[in-house]
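Key idea: predict the complex, not the pieces.
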Amino acid sequence: MHGPAPEERTRPVGRRSSQGIRVDPHAEATHEPRRTALSALVYHEPGVLAKVSGLVSRRQFNIESLTVGSTTNPETARITLVIEEPEPGVRQVEKQLLKLQPVISVRELGGDAIRRELVVLKVHGDEPDKVNAITQMYDGRTLDAGPRTITVEITGDEQKINDAIDAYRQFGIRELARTGQTALARGDEWTTDAEEERYERMQTEMGTSDSE
Amino acid sequence: MSEGSPARPASQETETETETTGETGGEADATTEDAAATPERTTGAAAVVTALERANVEHVFGVQGGAIMPVYDALYHSDIAHVTMAHEQGAAHAADAYGQVTGAPGVCFATSGPGATNLVTGIADANMDSDPVLALTGQVPTNFVGNDAFQETDTVGVTRPITKANYFADDETTIGDLVTEAFTVAGEGRPGPTLVDLPKDVTNAETEARPPEERDAAAAPAAEPQAVERAAEALASAEKPLVLAGGGVTKANASEELRRFATTFEVPVVTTMPGIGTFPEDHDLCLSWAGMHGTGYANMAISHTDCLLAVGTRFDDRLTGGIETFAPDATVVHVDIDPAEISKNVHADYPLVGDAGVVLDQLFETLPDGPDDRWATWREQCATWKEEYPMSYTTPDDEPLKPQFVVEALDEMTPDDTLVTTGVGQHQMWAAQFWTYTEPRTYISSHGLGTMGYGLPAAIGAKLAAPDREVVCFDGDGSFLMTVQELSVAVRENLDITVVVLNNEAIGMVRQWQDAFFGGRRMASEYRWMPDFATLAEAFGARGFTVDDYDDVADTLEAALDYDGPSVVDAFVDPAENVYPMVPSGGANDQFALSEDHL
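Result:
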């Protein structure tokens, strides 16, 4: 004898959210996407950027910016990844990155982290005085001023860059280049565990060699 | 094009050879004589082979070709047996099955360009199922790389998303180390495929460097004790606990630990499809496997459990159905060796990162002694579902042969440790549903990628891994045709395997979906003509049989099993038969359909 047909079966009461989280009074949770920066310390080897960007894109994570550059150790590089994801997505990016062979350490940067971005932008040179005033207002520098165009650089956090770009719009922006965020943890805090460990190891080694 | 480019002296001679012989390799007499005269000559290629020898590799599967020739030449003096496959896809699948049966990485070889790209399907398959595979591919000489040279492909780039790790060997002094590392990485932790791309000048180059002795395996990681205690508390306070055993239990060789845990505490067990065999399917506590075509009782148990102990599963959508309705009342204890699987698809209330066997033992030690009396009601409920939704089919005399009957008949004739490989499609589901698996590593199939054509090359790999065991392959007519050429390999190697083609003259699973969800428009799913598989088998040098009647099934299967070599049984089964139960894609597990009427 077959049991009840699908619609006649007793249904469990609970449900899960689209993120697989059980929805009940105790565990109910929905996550809104948030914008955050991850700092990844990686081995400085060919293809590492392709591996990181390929992973992020094929897993459909929403990437805002990605910057890469050297660190105090010539064998490693730092990748700063700005993503906009709900909490489970942020944790996934972190864990998936850690699975990549050249990735040494990954840390999500806190809200107080020092984040900087550089923009180089070129505006029409019809009103040089006004352009200069805006540049000074944003602590920028004029890199090139000709009869037809003025090129400036502005450094700052993302919001400041956005505001500055808005301010320059009145002159007509011909083109611009943004670097994307790069960042370090604030104060005493280390940006990644691996760097802290290496720093302490080197301090110990130097201490040992001094005493010898 | 090679004449115009500067080539390294070491690779110059063989370069000309590559140009003329191309992928098939052709005669390699000159190289062979050279190697015979100076067997002590050490090259990058020799280091590659030494690395494989030191890893105790006994069989490799592959296809010769221009860029991989130095490595094959180095194999000439090795005790490693090379199995020449008909197509590189077959080599990758054979290595995959070999790795699943032995537990150590299976190894496959291919040349550059088309050889490497032909491996891609097999590598992707191994990646989805976390099967340990080491792929070694030839590459054009390093000074040609990037120039679109003859038979060049960016193999490392192509395989990056489908490998656990891949490497470009650009230095003959470290090439052996790379192969050793790739072999180790493929097998350790969560297994997976790795690849080393071997440029021809690097494998040809003279070197004194040898690969390191195989390094000791890392200890299986345990979960944090406090986390184990919290998870044990959650299990102990549950009313309706359920174990969900995935492929990770097989990979960790944790079947014994699972059996001890479940039988001691008398907790019902559901497996995933890759977890089939980790818990004996003839045991009272076993509810078989859950998911789209899993048993009704497994899916009812998943839907109603209040505490799911999920071990070594990644919660694939074929298992969970719609994530919103999966195990809706359950707190989830998730055991996995890969932290990235924790809360990827289903949120883990109690994550336990570690080896499946070690963590099951930790839980075993932490839980109070013996079964909980409160759980008796839950076990009775599960037993009731087993009675309400049994796995069954009808066999009236006047109907065409039912595929399920053929599966059951062969199961009865073969020993418990028989290795079953399958292609992908309806036949795969029947082979999983109507065969009773009692041992781990006996159901060898393509799960995550769903690769049609997996069955025959997998049977070859499985038989070479376990020559003393019975190996049968259930294939579909569509799936069989995709890698049928590998029959030549089974004949050449004289492998005693039995292929049963459940022939329903269609890509049956697609046809089933078209009938259910596409208004019966059978676009490109039915075969208007099919070769005579029995005659085709004979043409390959195998034995061929056909069967279409209930009365002949036993005798035909018996004759095929008795034949000492590869045999193919073309079983004409009822084209109208479909796979049930079925959870419609994205539906709730407990809303499975038992027939067309329910869809």
